[in-house]
Amino acid sequence: MSAAPVGTREIGRHAVRAELARVAFNRFCLTGFNQVTFADLAEAAGVSRSTFLRYFGTKEDVVLFVFDPVGDVIADALDADRVDEDDWSRLRNALESAATFLVRDVQHLVTILDLVDQTPALCARLREKQTEWRPKIVARLRETASPADGSPVIANVRAAAALECLWIVLGQWSASGGQEDLGNLLDAAFAAFSPPARQQTAAPL
Amino acid sequence: MSAAPVGTREIGRHAVRAELARVAFNRFCLTGFNQVTFADLAEAAGVSRSTFLRYFGTKEDVVLFVFDPVGDVIADALDADRVDEDDWSRLRNALESAATFLVRDVQHLVTILDLVDQTPALCARLREKQTEWRPKIVARLRETASPADGSPVIANVRAAAALECLWIVLGQWSASGGQEDLGNLLDAAFAAFSPPARQQTAAPL
DNA sequence: CATAACCTGATACTCAGTGTCAGTCGCGAC
DNA sequence: GTCGCGACTGACACTGAGTATCAGGTTATG
Questions:
Q1: In this complex, do B128 and A123 lie within 8 Å of one another by their Cβ atoms?
Q2: % of chain A surpassing 70 pLDDT
Q3: Which residue of A has its CA nearest to B82?
């Protein structure tokens, strides 16, 4: 899944990166993302500013690098699930894979998500990452699309909509302190697409 | 629609802003967004760097301020269209209003959109603006939502999906040089939601 | 051991964005 | 008219992100 480091150098580098991120994250939560500078982080972690910057290209990445594998997780899940399902079902399941991947330490993820949506810069960067994932997802969808879907617009819209669902659902989940069930939340979100869409008359549920 | 300036000062300020943006935009198209600095822009426009920065808080805004009214345009269109329509139809119509608002000078809009998706920073900022529009749209949807929709998740998902449609459609439209019909493109995009979603068997169209 | 690759800290640099300050202009009140 | 007030401007200084370079130390490998 996450490319296993081969050399000892890779291992070390990975470990240092994790430690730097850990220290930095505490600072962010304590003082606020914008208030903390790279100089602060470097001092807190006991390395030089140069070194810190070598591990994380931007301040946003210090927080958001944990989301990097999500795009591949979703794409892989789509591949594993091409059995007789329609796009929406496959996307829903793939999103559940992504959610499962992210939720290891519930408390930690909740804290991250809180920090993210308190911080416009983090929101923006995370949305940017999502957009980077989309082409890969679109490609997987189109592999099995009916020939009638000549234009890539349909697949793009569905992929984009699904990614929005993931984000909205995670926001809701984190607002509940990680109590609610992600599967149920995903179902609730995808219900926005499935019904015949006439909302005026209350649908008998 | 766009709040009419009342005082002479407002008029002047607005005109200066437009002129600065015009000069700057040429520079961006010529040299590339990232290559141009505020100092360059100020010199090209014949004002000081300070003054230029007083008119535009960020370099991104110099390009993207034209999109600012779109959120209100969509919200207003939703209000004017609450007659007996389901959410998706209302959203589709509202998006067409937004598109109509944006397409005054076809060539200019195409140029802007090209510049935007050549420039990650502009993409990110535009997506940020979209997210700012969403709450207002959600509120309008929920005003007429059936009581069965207790959770705001449904409305959020639909608003987010619709905004993604707008962006995808504009991308497609701009790729065609502004030739294709935006109404048709919107229909094609919204088709991603309507069919029973089973994509394996080619739907007889 | 030797060498090549890598990591680190130091330093210098560009540029976005913020804030301050003094001078200027337009405009209404007196 | 002129006085004062508010807004606009340019000049300057400053913080902080991100890039680039360099010398010296460390580690893997032959």
A1: yes
A2: 88
A3: A200
